[in-house]
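haha ok so turns out i had the wrong file open the whole time. this is the CORRECT one, sorry everyone. sequence first:
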Amino acid sequence: MRQILISGAIALLISLFGTRVLIRILAAKGYGQIIRNDGPSSHHIKRGTPTMGGVILIAAPLSGYLIAHLVTQNSPTISAILVLSLVMALGVLGFIDDWLKVSRQNSIGLSGWQKLFGQGAVAAIFASLGVRFADSMSLTPISMYLSGVRETALYLGPIITIAWIVLMVMSASNGVNLTDGLDGLATGAAAMTFLAFILIGVWEFGQGCAINSGAGCYQVRDPLDLAVLAAAFAGSCTGFLWWNASPAKIFMGDTGSLALGGALAGLAATLRVELLLIPLGGLFVIITLSVVIQRLYFKISGGKRVFKMAPLQHHFELLGWGEVTIVIRFWIIAGLSVALGLGLFYAQWVAK
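then structure:
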C-alpha cells in the first residue's frame, strides 16, 4: 500500500508542477493547438493553446512508478513494464501526429489508416509479449482466456487473444482521443477509471490464490504492482487536470489521449477484467458510439444526421449548453459508469 501512495503522490507532484514548466516551453516555441474550421465556433478562441501536453502524462506516471520502487526497493514487474511500454509507444505515435499538425499549421496529421496501423502494430507486439513470461505459477501477464469481471473458462488461443487485445487497445485509445474535445473532459474521466483499477488491483492481490487459496481466488499475475501503476496514472491525470480544466492552459493532444487509452486497455488486460472496461470506461464508450452511429446513419440515410455534430459533446455545445456544464455532467456519467463497473466486480465476488 505504501508503494501505491508514493507512486500516486510523486506522479501528482511531477504532473502538477511539471505541466506548468511544459506550458512555458511549448508556448515559447509556438507549439499551439490547431482548431478545425468545421468545429463549434466557440473553440476558435482556443487556437494557439499549447498542445502535446501528453508528454507529461507519460513522464509523470513513469517517474512516479520508478521512484516508488526505488524508495521501497522492490523490483518492477513484467506486467507493469509491458503496460508502460505500450503507453510510451502509443505516446510516440500520438506525438508524431501532433508534431505534423503543429509543423504544418493545419489539423491534418497522420492519416486515419496510418494511425490505426500504428496502433494495431504496437498493440500486437504488446499482446504477443504479454502471453509469454510465465512466472512460477505459470501465470503470464495476459491470459489466453477471455475475462469479464474475472477470467472465464473461454479459451481464445494465441491468435485470437492477440487480435482481441489489438481491438481493445485501438478502441480504448481512439475512445479517449474522441472524448478529448472539451477542457478537462477526458482527463477527469480517465482519472476516475484509473482509481477503479487501483481498487481492483488491491482486491485481486488480497484475494489472490498466492495468498488466499480458497474457492474463487484470483489467478492474476502482479495485481498489486499494477495497482501501483494505476495510482501513478491517476495522480498524473489529477495534476494535469489543474491546468487542463476550463479554461485550459494546455491540451494533451494525441500524445496524451492515445497513451491514456493504451494504459486503460493495458491495465484491463493484465488485471483480467477485459470486458469490465466497457462499464468502467462508459463515457468513452458512449462518445465513441455517437461517432459510429453518426457515420453509419449518414451513409445509410444519404446525408442525414442523428446528432448536430459528433462526438456527442459537440452536439450539446451546438444545442447551447455551456462547456463547463457539459464537462461536469459528463463527469457525472463517467463516475456512475465507474461505480457500475466496480459494483459488477464486487457483486461477482459476493455471489461466488
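The chain has one domain: 2-278.
again sry for the mixup
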